[in-house]
Amino acid sequence: MIVNTISKHLLFNTVKITCVMPGGVVSHGTGFIIDILDSPEQNALIVITNRHVVEGALHISIRMIGRMKDADQPLLGTAHDFSIDNNSVQLVGHPDPTVDIAAFPLLPVIGAMEPDVFFRFVARHQIATPVQAAAHDALEEVTFVGYPNGWSDELHHTPIVRRGITATPMGLKFGGKPVFLVDGSVFGGSSGSPVFLFNEGTYSDGQGNLVVGTRFQLVGIMAATLVRHSNLPMTVATQPHVKLAQEMNLGVAYNSHAIVETIAEFERVHGIKATEPTQVQAVQE
């Protein structure tokens, strides 16, 4: 596979997170890579995931796909697992503890192995801005990438890509929280999956006009699934649980503004001076 399109890039933007929880319970989740500096001269790569995926874990590791030695292309069928040392890698959560997003730096985790792993990142300017979010239509097709039930392509180690539609407008805070609902099957292991607007060919500008072109924006992060007979969402890590209610195929995703706020908190904690984010271009690869 030659990684030269947006859709192919999506296969290498995520990492599979495995956690050993108290009692020896093993759970899986998803994280995705963002370059928060958005500068051609340098980058600062972080992994965004859900707080509940990593919080309280006794051991955390991430899996990344190998890289060809003679080309900047993936070596499918090879993977590297990296342990996260909580003593040296600081996990930073959203400043509001009720917002289920956390971040940690990538390069201290993979260290000297960086040339041997292949990945792609979301640039900071590809995160939907408030102006862009206000222009989103009430009904949008969204794409999310991750490891439902901890699954991936066992031979190639690539994640599972899925699509759904927004069940509530992304520009409205569902229930007063910075979340929106997605009509799509969201299972354990999907926690931390990036949610994208990815339209090729044509898309609506939210004003009733049809635009010719390609749109690619990070609009959210998957965190939970709604269940029947309950007013509370159920987190979607893969820890065993007693199923008390039937899942409704409605995922809960935190919006792009909550992701940006988490990045700002990460920058504050680590003393990083960010560059000014730019607008999303018509096509980003």
Order of helices and strands: HEEEHEEEEHEHEEEEEEEH
Shape: globular
Please give the domain count. 2
Distance between the first and last residues' Cα? 16 Å
Structural class: mainly beta
Query: What's the total count of β strands?
Result: 15
The CATH topology annotation of the largest domain reads as Thrombin, subunit H
Q: What summary fits the major beta sheet?
A: 8 strands, mixed
The CATH homologous superfamily name of the largest domain equals Trypsin-like serine proteases
Number of helices: 5
SSE diagram, text form:
Blueprint: H1 6-10, E1 14-20, E2 26-35, E3 45-49, H2 51-54, E4 59-67, E5 74-84, E6 92-93, E7 102-105, H3 107-110, E8 122-123, H4 130-135, E9 141-146, E10 160-166, E11 179-183, E12 194-204, E13 210-227, E14 234-235, E15 247-255, H5 256-270
